[in-house]
Specification:
The chain has 241 residues and is of the alpha+beta class. The chain contains four helices and ten strands. A five-stranded antiparallel β-sheet has the order 8-10-2-1-9. Strands 3, 4, 5, 6 and 7 form a five-stranded antiparallel β-sheet that branches. The two termini are 46 Å apart. The relative contact order is 0.28.
Length: 241
């Protein structure tokens, strides 16, 4: 898969605490009592999508459950035929088992049975992006009435985000060293690492450093790209040089 834009965005925020009083054990565990830096490292990568993912449901309601199931089966067959026509592989076509639920209306405070709903959920990946319009039209023609979501994505997303997390941590470290050097300090270690913001206790001096490649601000709109963004929140300890 080709990247149309390599990692191009870096947003770093650093907080310097020279003397802080912590009121709770949990907060004290996250931040040391001595001088430290709280830095947020970010890594962003924009990639061409590998597929469009469509989630939808095929559902019918009737008093005769076997007959209603046959209706759902018939629509499912049409959906699969349409999927094969636009080149969707069997492994990219996922369907749940049947869900059977009685349906009721409320009239004058009373629950009135109106039939039993038979349904199936589908999650389908279309890799031929230029056939998306044809696929969407085919879904409507097959009788699909409930398209829950359409999104673009990339293969092996978790692996790509794991690689970005390493970059985010390196970015955080570089910014911590830069700020520490400006204060005649040196980074001595890592106290806390988190994938979510760490609560800030007490006061402090907050410094914000921002770097952004202009190219990243001109990214095309969906579904032309998928943006992967990873943030790492790190508390570094430091000391006087």
């Amino acid at each position: 898969m080709q990247k149309w834009l390599s990692p191009a965005a870096l947003s770093l925020a650093a907080t310097l605490f020279t003397s802080t009083i912590f009121s709770g054990t949990a907060m004290a565990d996250r931040f040391p009592t001595g001088p430290h830096l709280y830095v947020t490292g970010e890594a962003v990568e924009k990639l061409a999508p590998d597929f469009v993912e469509t989630s939808f449901m095929v559902a019918r309601t009737g008093a005769d459950v076997p007959a209603t199931k046959k209706e759902v089966d018939a629509i499912t067959d049409k959906v699969w035929a349409a999927a094969k026509k636009v080149g969707i592989a069997k492994e990219d076509f996922q369907a749940t088992g049947f869900s059977v639920n009685p349906m009721y209306d409320f009239e004058e405070g009373k629950r009135v049975y109106r039939g039993t709903q038979v349904s199936r959920q589908f999650l389908v990946k279309l890799r031929s992006m230029d056939k998306f319009n044809a696929w969407s039209e085919a879904l409507v023609q097959t009788g699909v009435q409930d398209i829950a979501g359409i999104s673009v994505n990339v293969d092996k997303r978790e692996e790509k985000e794991a690689a970005l997390r390493v970059t985010a941590l390196k970015n955080a470290r570089a910014e911590a060293e830069r700020l520490a050097g400006a204060l005649d300090q040196v980074v001595t270690g890592v106290h806390t690492i988190s994938d979510s913001p760490i609560g800030e206790g007490g006061g402090g001096i907050r410094a914000l450093a921002m770097r952004m490649d202009k190219a990243s601000e001109e990214a095309p709109t969906l579904p032309d790209h998928v943006e992967l963004r990873v943030e790492s929140y790190v508390v570094f300890t430091m000391m006087k040089k």
